[in-house]
Amino acid sequence: QVQLVQSGAEVKNPGAAVKVSCKASGYTFTNYYIHWVRQAPGQGLEWMGIINPSGGSTTYAQKFQGRVTMTRDTSTSTVYMELSSLTSEDTAVYYCARDRIVGTTPGYVFDYWGQGTLVTVSS
Amino acid sequence: SYELTQPPSVSVSPGQTAKITCSGDELPKQYAHWYQQKPGQAPVLVIYKDRERPSGIPERFSGSSSGTTVTLTISGVQAEDEADYYCQYAYSIASFVVFGGGTKLTVL
């Protein structure tokens, strides 16, 4: 069965960076794009960007450009999301989610989600 | 506007039908998708491309579209359907993704 398993909760100081991992299993890793979506406490969902696990190409939401980096390791079927220059506004649960469409063009529909990683930014 | 507007809350008694709307100027041109999120859990896709239901989602969940509004309908609501529901669309060419603000469904 398809599974996305994320790394554990993090506590970071303002100005630091955080790197969250998302390990995929149960399907061919390079066939499906992976998205990152975050959710601040008590708030809605916010899309951060997308990575193609096959070639590693990325597209980031304008809000996060310059501050987010998404990478992948095909040997371990893992994608990573690193967010830098953290502020209290970045306190949120971060989710990875698989794109529903197989192939070279993503559909921007999220059919499987990781369990979420809570990132707390506090001094 | 690229925004999606949802009612903050909808309440319904068990066995009744719940309708959750999502409005946006771009919806006549783009498919909408719906996610269910229970407290402390990740979202779950319940409807995609306005009206398609993923495997494993109960038949009581359905979707429809009319003009600038899409609607998620839950027929014969059960207590387990109490959750937050989010609509979403995307401009894939521009890699632009929008979520609605979410609707809290309360089963009375």
Question: What can you tell me about this protein's structure?
Answer:
The complex is a heterodimer of chains A (123) and B (108). Chain A is built from no helices and eleven strands. Chain A has 123 residues and is an all-beta fold. In chain A, strands 2, 4, 5, 6, 9, 10 and 11 form a seven-stranded mixed beta sheet that branches. In chain A, strands 1-3-8-7 form a four-stranded antiparallel beta sheet, with no helix packed on it. Chain B has no helices and nine strands. In chain B, the strands form two sheets. In chain B, strands 1, 3, 4, 7, 8 and 9 form a six-stranded mixed beta sheet that branches. In chain B, strands 2-6-5 form a three-stranded antiparallel beta sheet, with no helix packed on it. The N and C termini of chain B lie far apart (34 Å). The mean pLDDT of chain B is 95. Chains A and B meet through β5, β9 and β10 of A and β7 and β8 of B.
